[in-house]
Amino acid sequence: MLYRYAENRFPRRHARLRYALYGAMSLLACLGPVKSAHAGSAASTHRSTSRDQNPNQLSIQVNNDRLTLTVAKAPQIYLAGVIDADAPQRFDAMVKSGKIVSGSDVYLNATGNDIHAGIALGRLLRENAMTTHLGTQRLPRQSGSVGKPALCTGACAYAYLGGLYRWAPTGADRIGFPAHPANDPAPTNSSTAQQSPDELTSYLKDMDIDPAVLATLLTASSSDTAWLTADQMISTRLANNGRLPLIATYQLQDGAPYLMLNETKRGGEHRMTVQCKKDGITFTAYNSVGADHARQIVARSSRAFVEINHMESDSSQQDNAVVQDQAVVIIRTYPASQLGNLITAHTLGAWVRDRSSTLRYGFEFELDGLDRILKQYYQSCWTYAPWQVQAPQKG
Question: Which of 43, 49, 80, 386 is deepest in the core (most CB within 10 A)?
Answer without folding.
Answer: 80
